[in-house]
Every structure is written in structure tokens, then in C-alpha cells.
Amino acid sequence: MCIQQESTSKATGIIPLEDISIRKVDGKKRFCFELYHNETQQVKAMKIEAGKIQKGHHESYFICAASERSRDEWVEAISSNIFSDPYQVLINKKKRQQQALEKQTKKKKSTTTTTTASPTAGSGSGSNSSGSNSGSLSSRGTPGSTSIIGGTSDNPTVDFKELHSFATMCHVLSSEGQPGLTSTYGKWALIEPPFHDYALFFLVAHPTKVQTIVISAVKWRSAAALQSDIATHGYALPEFYNVSAAVEHLRERVFQLLRKDFLTNIVGHCLGGTVAVRLGGMLHKRGFKLGSVVTFGHPSDLQDRELDALAALPIVRVTLPADPIPTLFPSCPQVGSVVALEADLQYWVTQASAHNEALLDSLTEPRLAFNQMDAYYQAIKARHEQTPVRIEPPASQATVQFRTSAPTVVSKGAGTRDRTMSRFRSLSGKKSHRASSSVGTLFMHLDE
Q: Span 7-36, mean pLDDT?
């Protein structure tokens, strides 16, 4: 790639398109794109000053085009001419192996010369210490590769420090927007324009090689508006709420902006969680390394045939028992681990196995308030700062059913789906048809 002076057309610099990546970036200036190297810290480049060739020393190059169309043409042209040097790939692999060996050797030496510290008070099952976030990108914390749910199947524990970091991302996105994201995460935050009311941003931490996709969407402004949507659209609600369009949009942006070799987390609130689960399935199929897929109060729009493809995903559904939105789309199965936040710092953990049972006649403003991200954030923050108490899930041998009151248990059976569809039909006035075009599109991509 040759850079020329606009006035004289003389070459002022060269950037070889060897083992580099390109992505669109919109920051202070519009219509920009970034060139960066996949492995090394610096991009190969040369600049010509006073007739002499000097080596470049930048980690990336930001280039601005005159318009969005011009930028798209540049990105397409550069992408089609990028090539890979197999010898350089081999050298980089050897370097990484050597660096990992040196790091491991240094770690062993440090552990033999340092004194072991005393255990933190209160560190037990389900508790966490709230010390300093050393190495994080901000004082609010940035998630890494820690698993949220640990322990054993008989005695599961939750890392509320890690969960608090994810909840903070969604909370800042939904309540503070771009100013809050910029002040909290700085240059690591890639803030996307809203897409059909889906608020989006990417947090790409190059030092830790961790990237997080954060999505938040609430498509109704009141309980009355939601009831109206249900009555008008019935089982086509996912299509009306642009679920499939948001997944497709995000998939394209992920391939443009994010890196396959980084650990990828996906976080979603409400309908953003619905998108997060489907996006996680797609990225897993494409070979992305998934750390966690965390959702807060999201409604499932899955079908039974999709569960096998999503079973391997590290999905964690966080729910408040009074939140009615997780049951918004009736007769849909749930997937992943469930962390239910009860009163008095209590919580329980189980595997999602129930089908949603629509309780839409209980959609009132006070109950709908439990779906706000602030309600989830405050509940998780309290457990992060204090000592949470794990309790057993109600009737763990049966199917756990999320309701708008305290969690109760319903028995499995063929009549459950029929009763659910009957209640939904009586409220919405629609016939009991299940499939929608948006869901069908998503199934196609999961199975391709």
C-alpha cells in the first residue's frame, strides 16, 4: 500500500499488506479504518523524509476517507490484497512459545522466593473478596477469562466479582451511553451506533487479549406498550423486535472489528441477551474462543432442535424471580446455567431445562421495573460487596419454572405447551402458529 502526497503524487510511505488486519473505526473523526498486525506489536511500514527511507514504529495506522462509501471501497480493496507469509507465521509461533516458556520460568522463580499471604477473610463457598482490580482497564473492572460458575454440580459457586464486571458494562451502556463508556473504558471501547434500538459496544483489551461484545435492548416503553405489541404481533414478536436483523448486523461487525485469536465474551440485557445467545452459537461454530455468554433478564426464542448446537456454550442466565420478561416468548426452551438472585443476598444455581410459560397477564409497571438493568446491577453489586448466600434451587429434581412471583415448580408433560399456547392465544387474539421468518433465518445460520 503506497501513500502519496496529494499535491505532487510523490510517494511518502509504504505499508506492506503482509499479515495485517483491517477494521472500520468511528471515533472523533468519521469514515476511518485501522490497519494493525495480527501477531507483532508494530506494523511493518516505511516513510520517506528528506529523500531517506525510515522504518515505521507504530502499532497501528488510522486512515480517514472522504465518505462512508469511499471507506468501504478502501476496506474491500485492502482486504482482497492482504497476504500471509508462512515463514513469518512460523517465526511468530516460535516466539510465542519462547515467551510462554520464559513467563512460566519467571513465575516459578517468583513463587519460590515470595512468602505466601494469609487467606482473605470470608473467602468461602459463594463469597468473593472485593480487592483492587489490578491490571483492569478501569476502577469498575474488566472481565478476563475466569469462569463465572465454579465448584461442583452438587455445590456450585458464583464469581460475583466477574459477574459484577459484566453487569457494569451493561449498566454503563444502558444508563450512561457513550460518555460513560468513554470515561470508564477509554480507548478500549469501540462504540457502535444504535441498530434498531439495540445499543452496542465492543471492549477490546489488547494487553490481555480479551474482547467483549455488549448488547442492550428494550423495545417497549411501558407495560401497556408491550401488551399492545403482544396483541398485535403474537408469536412474530422476535421478528417485530428485529432479533434476526440484530444478529446478522452484529455478526458482520464482529468479523470486521474483532480478532479470532482473542478470548471473546458476549454480554446482553433483555433482548440484547436474546441476540447474545444466538451470536454465541454462530461464533462458536466459526471457531471463536468463547469465554462467557452472560445475559440479564433475557427472553429465550429458541426451539428444541437448537439446544444440541448451543449445549456446549458457556451460557449464564441471570434472573430476578419477579422479572416477567424471561418468559416473554412462550413455549420456547431455555439453555445454559441459571443464576437466580433471591432476596437477602440469597441466590441459587441450576441448569435451564424449562420451557417458557407465558404469564403475560401479570405484565404491570411494577413487575416490568424488575427487568431494568439497574435492578440487576444493584442486586449483583450487593453480592459483590458483601457475602452472598447460596441456597438450594426449589424442587431441584423437577423443572424450574420462572414466574413473576417466587420461583415455583411445574411438572413436565405434553399438556404444558398446549396450556401455555392457549393462554397466550387468549391474550393476544392470534392463532397458535409457532414459526416466524426471523427465527427461521437464525436456524439456517446455526445449522449451516
A: 79
